[in-house]
């Protein structure tokens, strides 16, 4: 049974949550999170396995009822307006659950009929979506022999058959090669430009930087950071990182020689990460102190640095 709702959800936003909770028995998967997604924004959920991302997405998609707090999707309560919400959102699951016995065209047309759309409408829509997904030349091919990238594009196209105002994407490019990923990024960017709100989860930090206007980092069921990718990097990291690689097991002995040169030092089994405003200058000063690593790498700070700082490097199954 749903607990009493928290006040303050924004009914004008695409998605608004206040004190949102999800409990499975004694386990609280989502622990009272607050977030708002304005219409037309690309918004991301980042976090390690078990952080609560999938549970949150399932509540937004009306697949799982909340156990506390307030949630509004397109101004409606999923608990009481599930069918109306589902008719206006698109869902792209992590697994490509296409019908392998049907053709590309038939997958789109059959799915469109689930929304009560006329046959004439879904025929026209299928043509439009195949062009969008660059699958027009495979329209009458069976799904099974398609490449992974083609299947992923078809899954995304299928999620658009009802002209959704909000599209939920769970790990949209997992397992794809770089060329296929970049093509999908382009398709998703075009969607956002057309005014569609995108909500996605991803384990690829570069994908989050490319696609998301704003994102939240979740850990253990809570939101631990929120902002644009650039703002999060500025808040939780430095402009650049200097990586010093040593023989495994030895980096720790050099910390005392370099820690006063930078804002933060991270010790890994085979290297030191020096967080600094100017990595080239820091590298020169490290050399002046007689530190001689096997190799050095100068790079800019990324969202991955932020993610690992906030959630740790411990492997989570």
From TrEMBL:
Q: How does it sit in the membrane?
A: Peripheral membrane protein
Quote one Gene Ontology molecular function term: ATP binding
What's the chief localization of this chain? membrane
Q: What are the GO BP annotations of this UniProt entry?
A: response to antibiotic
Where does this protein reside within or beyond the cell?
Answer: Cell membrane
- Judging by the UniProt lineage, the source's domain of life is Bacteria
State the GO CC annotations.
Answer: plasma membrane
**What UniProt keywords apply to this chain's record, in alphabetical order?**
Antibiotic resistance, ATP-binding, Cell membrane, Membrane, Nucleotide-binding, Translocase, Transport
Tell me the InterPro entries matching this sequence: AAA+_ATPase (IPR003593), ABC_transporter-like_ATP-bd (IPR003439), ABC_transporter-like_CS (IPR017871), ABC_transporter_ATP-binding (IPR050763), P-loop_NTPase (IPR027417)
Q: Enumerate the spans annotated as ABC transporter domain.
A: 15-245
Taken from the record, one Pfam family name reads ABC_tran
The reply on keyword Cell membrane is yes
Documented EC number(s): 7.6.2.2
So what family is this one in? Belongs to the ABC transporter superfamily. Drug exporter-1 (DrugE1) (TC 3.A.1.105) family.
What is the protein named? ABC-type xenobiotic transporter
* Organism per entry: Streptomyces sp. K01-0509
């Amino acid at each position: 049974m749903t607990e009493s709702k928290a006040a303050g959800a924004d009914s004008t936003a695409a998605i608004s949550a206040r004190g949102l909770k999800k409990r499975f028995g004694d386990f609280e998967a989502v622990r009272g999170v607050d977030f708002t997604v304005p219409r037309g924004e690309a918004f991301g959920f980042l976090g390690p396995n078990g952080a609560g991302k999938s549970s949150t997405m399932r509540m937004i998609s009306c697949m799982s009822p909340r156990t506390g707090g307030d949630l509004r999707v397109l101004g409606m309560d999923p608990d009481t307006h599930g069918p109306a919400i589902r008719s206006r959102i698109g869902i792209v699951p992590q697994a490509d659950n296409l019908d392998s016995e049907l053709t590309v065209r038939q997958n789109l047309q059959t799915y469109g009929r689930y929304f009560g759309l006329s046959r004439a409408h879904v025929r026209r829509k299928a043509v439009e979506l195949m062009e969008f997904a660059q699958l027009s030349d495979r329209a009458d091919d069976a799904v099974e022999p398609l490449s992974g990238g083609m299947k992923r594009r078809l899954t995304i196209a299928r999620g658009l058959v009802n002209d959704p105002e909000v599209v939920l994407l769970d790990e949209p490019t997992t397992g794809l090669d770089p060329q296929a990923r970049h093509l999908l990024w382009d398709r998703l960017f075009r969607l956002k430009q057309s005014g569609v709100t995108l909500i996605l989860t991803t384990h690829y930090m570069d994908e989050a930087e490319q696609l998301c206007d704003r994102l939240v980092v979740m850990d253990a069921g809570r939101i631990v950071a929120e902002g644009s990718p650039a703002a999060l990097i500025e808040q939780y990291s430095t402009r650049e990182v200097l990586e010093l690689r040593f023989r495994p097991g030895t980096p720790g002995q050099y910390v005392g020689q370099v820690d006063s040169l930078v804002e933060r030092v991270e010790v890994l089994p085979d290297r030191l990460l020096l967080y600094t405003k100017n990595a080239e200058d820091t590298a020169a000063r490290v050399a002046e102190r007689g530190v001689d690593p096997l190799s050095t790498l100068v790079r800019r700070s990324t969202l991955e640095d932020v993610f690992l700082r906030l959630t740790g490097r411990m492997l989570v199954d």
